[in-house]
Amino acid sequence: MHAPLPPASRLVLSLDGTIEGYASLFGEIDQARDMMMPGAFAQTLRQRGLRKIPMLFQHDPSEPVGIWLELREDFRGLWARGKLIPDVARARELLALLRANAIDGLSIGYRTVRGRIDPRTRIRKLYQVDLWEISIVTFPLLAGARIDAVKATPRRAAAGRAWRNPGGAADVPAPSGRVRVECMRANAVTRKQARA
Question: Model-level pTM?
């Protein structure tokens, strides 16, 4: 018998601004009735590469807030690890919002390359997408795409100094939690209406 899998429903944020978790989950239906299928990101990750997929705030291309350090598909979905950039004012504000649980979602921006609508369920299964960006957002299309908590430690002052002075901080992975984030694209509902 296999041990149960740990929940994939929350984003982990470390004190140095590193986040990690799932940017998309396979087999989950979002509010736009899209379902990402295994392998959907494989080609775009090979072609586009890590640095060509920005970390944005609210899908706004004028609001880059960090970089992705690792993106890969596994059996659950698209796993991502990245870091907020402390020299960017919006990233510092975003860290404060994340710590206060004022914002807690992740979302992906993409263009569908290959998909099929099931005529019975009207669910669109996405087999290949061109991933444009991954955003920290207020309202993800998947209700369960929420940040769990921002950890506070007695060394908060030291962590704050490391956040303000990134040269002295090591790039370490976040604690072993995961993020569950629905697959969605920027303005998905609007774009679907435009195609109809």
Answer: 0.71
Single-letter amino acid code for the residue at 26? F
Tell which residue, 162, 145, 175, has the closest CA to residue 16.
Answer: 162
Locus of tokens 């002052």:
157
Q: Which two tokens stand for residue 165?
A: 């002075």
Structural domain of 38: 28-195
Cβ–Cβ < 8 Å for 22, 79? yes
Q: What distance in Å separates the CA atoms of residue 16 and residue 13, rounded to the nearest whole number? A: 8
Q: What is the pLDDT of residues 24-42, one digit of tens each?
A: 889 999 989 999 999 999 9
The radius of gyration computed from the CA coordinates of the chain, to the nearest angstrom, equals 17
Structural domain tally of the chain? 1
For residue 42, is it within any domain? yes
Measured between alpha carbons, how far is 189 from 176 in angstroms, rounded to an integer?
33
Please give the Cα distance from 91 to 75 (Å, whole number).
Answer: 30
